[in-house]
Amino acid sequence: MQIDFHHGVTYAVARLAGFEHEQANIIANSAQYVDDATNSGLIKFDNGALFNRIGSAHKRLDYRNFRQLANYQVWIPFHFLPGNGGLPAGQEPEGKFINKLVCRPNSYVAQEMMTECIERRHLPYSLYRLGIAMHVYADTWAHQGFAGVSHEVNHAKHLVDEQGNLDQYLNAQIERYFHKNLIERLANIFISEALPLGHGAVLGHPDKPFLKWGYTNGLNQKIIRNNPQDYLEAAEHMCLWMQRYRVGDPKAKVSALPPDDKALIAQMLNNITDAKGEMRHQRWLEILSKGKFSFGQADISYIPKGKGSWKYQALGTQKEKDSRQEVFKYHPSFLSSHWKLFHDALEAHRFHVVHELLPRYGICVA
User: Fold this and answer.
1) pLDDT score recorded for residue 127
2) What is the pLDDT of residue 176?
3) Per-domain boundaries in the chain
4) Are strands 41-45 and 327-328 parallel, antiparallel or unpaired?
5) What is the distance between the alpha carbons of residues 324 and 51, in angstroms, rounded to a whole number?
6) 226: CB partners within 8 A, 6+ apart
7) How many Å apart are CA 133 and CA 344, to the nearest integer?
8) Which site in 97, 140, 177, 296 is 20 to 30 Å from 24, CA atoms measured?
9) What is the pTM of this model?
């Protein structure tokens, strides 16, 4: 998924779940910032204070840069949550260990992640962690069938369009992107031969809400994907979990999306067909500003780096990438800044997923 869903849709769903604007804004900004927290390492202050933060993404993702992509500490806890074959803890999917790592929509693993998030809602960074969890949870729909490791399970061939016809456009796009001559390769074998990590084999297809498409995976299974349907289902379940968070009960019986709002989300997922996520995001912001949803008019924006961003407010820097040599001026307000609380939540999320949650399912990752 891209910024249109992780920020725009997440904000709308948070409001529909009952959060007020300020809370929904924190949740939505945190959900999107998972894709923009590209720096890691130590922050040094002029008074001697220190703060260590981790990253959750690689910006300007280049699928040709295989070594950079092989960062399992980023991909597994934040983008390709292992699904354990869709089975609960204590049960094993058939086949090899890789089948435990493949992402599955609304898996037991994902639901336990959400439960733990609710149980820790008393912590000062809990809303930020909810936003991070919303990103990971939503991606279990978009990234289903793929794993956040380099493995042949991510192979893809015979990509088809909505009508089941070979997608000639994607073939040409991949050829241009990788400067490969497909004529010299086996028929319909794609880039996953070189990089079977995540959904690199199909580029951005899983992340575009409007697409209906298909492919044959590395297990030689024919997969049909309906992104608008999957994305709408993700939004529905996100609303349920955010309502449970509000009442503090992961088992609470809560209501689904209001019918008119759900219909509007479905319409937008299907009809906003701009290729770039940033363009689709602007369309969502326009709809929100016009008050089309039942919660009324809302003006929101998102600034990942630079003036006005959470990082700028916390550290006073406009740089996109840190050199690790900077010494920042310390302000007491840093401890309660959005940026610091987001990074506290980011570290808490990764620790829980890697060291507590996945081991319950017999999964040990870096």
Assistant:
1) 98
2) 60
3) 3-148+225-360
4) parallel
5) 12
6) 212
7) 13
8) 140
9) 0.91
Helix (H, G, I), strand (E, B) or coil at 363: coil
Side by side, the strands of the sheet bearing 156-160 are 156-160, 212-217, 222-226
Q: Consecutive sets of 10 residues in the chain, 366 residues long: mean pLDDT of each?
A: 97 98 98 95 96 84 47 88 97 94 97 98 98 98 92 83 79 57 38 44 81 88 94 98 98 97 98 95 98 98 96 93 88 98 98 97 90
Q: Which two tokens stand for residue 185?
A: 């390769």
Q: Look at residue 185 in the predicted model and tell me its pLDDT.
A: 39
Alpha carbons 124 and 321: distance in angstroms, whole number: 27
Nearest of 279, 125, 153, 257 to residue 210 by alpha carbon: 279
Beta strands in the chain (DSSP E): 41-45, 50-53, 156-160, 212-217, 222-226, 327-328
The length of the chain in residues reads 366
Contacts by 40-43, CB closer than 8 A, 24 or more apart: 41/322, 41/324, 42/324, 43/315, 43/322, 43/328
| CA angle, residues 339, 135, 301, in degrees to nearest 5 | 55
Distance, CA of 120 to CA of 158 (rounded, Å): 45
Strand partners, 156: 217
